[in-house]
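[audit] Reproducing an earlier prediction to check determinism. Same input, same settings, fresh worker. If the tokens differ from the archived copy the diff job will pick it up downstream; this log only records the rerun itself.
[audit] input (215 residues):
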Amino acid sequence: MRGLGALQRRPWTQRLGVRLASLMAVALLPLGIMAYLQTSNLAREAQGRSEEALMGETLRAAAGEIKVISQAQGMVAALAYAVPDLVNDIAACSALMSQTLKSSEDVGLLSFVPISGLMTCSSNGQSFDYSEIPLFKSIISSRTPSFTMSQLGPVLGTSVLGVIHPVFSHDGSYIGYASAWLPHTKLRVLQESWRPSNREHSRQACRVLEFQQGR
């Protein structure tokens, strides 16, 4: 009877069932951790595939716009290099813009806008004062190649996508920016199976180009 009483007085943590359960829990813990890690890795891989598929779809959908915008980038980069020699010759500067424009059917306007905001060098020979326009203030303070959109371009009078490139003088001073303005009506998707609005494709194309430039 004394032996039976001593057995009954054992702490619950020393009972066989509890000890076995504890041993099983410890034994199975690494398996649980491995399962969790495998699940996390699978989730990350699935997310990565989804993002790659989305980027591929974006590239296909915006292929036409990417080509047009890339060409416009090259145009304004070349103009930014040439403009410093022509800033004091409005006729020659405008002639350069007009001649360059002939190489693209999609660009509606090429121009150089100085830091004053008064555009006098443009492909259509027009002058325009941008100085009080909020979009100009945003562009002129950037000093980096960029894209912008406007629902109503003040010179072309329509919804436009702007491709911007800063212009520096030969001594390194920032003097303004060269710009190419593309009407959304001319930004078309070439040989695509689905066609949302031109404006959305332009946004996609700009995001892709910015992503590629940032890598």
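[audit] rerun output stored. Observation attached for the diff report: The longest helix spans residues 16-61.
[audit] end
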